Amino acid sequence: MSKSVNAALLNAFVCPGTGHLYLGKKAIGWGIIAACFVSLCVIMTEVMTRAQVIADEIVAGNMPMDFYSIYDAVHQSMTTNLPQSLNLAWFVLLACWIGGTVSAYLMGKKMDEQKKS
User: Fold this and answer.
1) What phi, psi does 66 have (nearest 5°)?
2) pLDDT in tens, 56-72
């Protein structure tokens, strides 16, 4: 299998940035990994904060322990009043994933062509 396909598959299915590391582009690879890590931290912090609020409501007895009530509270929590940082984090994660995969494929293809020459 060619380097371009291996790099793209690593980037798409293992972790964004690993394809660049495979190709020897360490600065780009670690930069993409760092951006993904930061965006995942922002997303998980917001999710855990909202989950803690719902858990506190259940423990306090303000919300019944029934599946549909909890589901409705979670759904409402994640669809209303979302901060801009969460939207930006989702965008960065998606851009790193898709852009990194395409970038790794193109860099690998260039390396494959240079190897043939």
Assistant:
1) -125, 145
2) 999 999 998 889 999 99
